[in-house]
Design goal:
The chain is of the alpha+beta class. The chain contains two helices and two strands; from the N terminus they run αββα. The protein has helices spanning about 15-30, 50-70; strands at about 35-40, 40-45.
Length: about 90
């Protein structure tokens, strides 16, 4: 069937194929964010000292991710995505 990508959930090959498919995301974002992956989850860590600089950097990373997803025929599930801001208090 044309237009269908992926592996049915619950298959043993799923996590392996996912990792093979997205392993270049690490290289693609290497200068913009730290990428941590486990099974089929991905976390991006973006560090910046100033709020305005952080906002610019986050938007740049999100644009890059969107471009990568489009180029790889993937779609991000926004219902399973979240954002967390952590601030160091001195």
């Amino acid at each position: 069937m044309e237009g269908i990508n992926g592996v049915p959930q619950g298959r043993n090959l799923g996590p392996l194929l996912f990792n093979l498919y997205v392993n270049d995301l690490l290289v693609y974002l290497k200068d913009k964010a730290e990428v941590t992956m486990y099974a089929d989850d991905c976390a991006l860590i973006i560090l910046e000292n100033e709020a305005q600089s952080l906002e610019i950097k986050i938007n740049d990373v999100l644009k890059s991710i969107d471009k990568w997803f489009c180029a790889n025929n993937l779609k991000m599930n926004l219902n399973k995505s979240s954002f967390m801001l952590i601030k160091k208090v001195i």
